[in-house]
Cell division protein FtsX
Amino acid sequence: MRLAFILGETFSGIRRNLSMVVSVILVTFISLSFVGTAGLLQLQINQMKGYWYDRVEVAIFLCTETSGAASCAAGAVTDEQRTAIQDLLDSPTASAYVDSYEYESQEMALDIFREQFSNSTMSDTVTAEQLPESFRVALINPEQYEVVNEMFSGMPGVEVVSDQRELLETLFTLMNIASVVAVAVAVVMLVCAILLIATTIRLSAFSRRRETGIMRLVGASKTMIQLPFLAEGVIAALIGAAMASVATWAVAHFFVGDWLTQQYPGTGFISGVDALLIIPLLLIIAVVLAAVSSMLTLRRYLRV
């Protein structure tokens, strides 16, 4: 009986303030969609770090005729210098850090360059002599790059030792900035949702002040009077959170998991299953914010 009464009063209040309730749903949907997007970005960043950090290579670029490094003062790398570098890679000292390595000649570097820049006119103007030879080194532990860098930097014939993680860190930094921006927008939108929920509850309490007065006179408890108003805000927020959850899952499943995976098959992407980790958080945020906002409003505008 009490449950039927509470539900009846709740949906009656929703009907009376339908436009405000719809506004709460839409604002909650948009704000939690930004929260979901930020969560997906963080999951993708962690996924890419785990995927790429295990595959990054250290590139030991060898001197060319045009190299300006101090170790290249004598000109292009010689056969003796190249052999000395390879011997060090094969030595027990380096073997503790080096998992494997491959030699890339200038001709191989040119083929790779032309493949990467096939749509640019640069591919026709660059020659093999302009590109450096290199050893592509896979490390046992990518975090030990500095050890390998110190080992080979400054060797005769070595122009520079480059760690691909530097490029990845730039990408991850940009993705983290995008995630922070999404969270900031979400916070602003959540504040708007809280204010809308408070306004909706206040209008509902004002429009039903006569009913609540009668309920006080007949001895209804404080909880019985306040629960329908509280339920209005929670239901509206939950509907918005459910919509945001569907949108978050759809982005992860169709855009990231399907489309991006097909476009970039060599990259590890998240999927719709990963988005399921975020959905409970969105629902919890919606319930907590709606409940807190409703309770504070009821204490002020519905004194029982």
Q: What stands out?
A: The longest strand covers residues 98-104. The first helix runs from residue 2 to 16. The beta strands are 57-62, 98-104, 134-139, 158-163. The domain at 57-163 is CATH 3.30.70.3040 (Alpha-Beta Plaits).
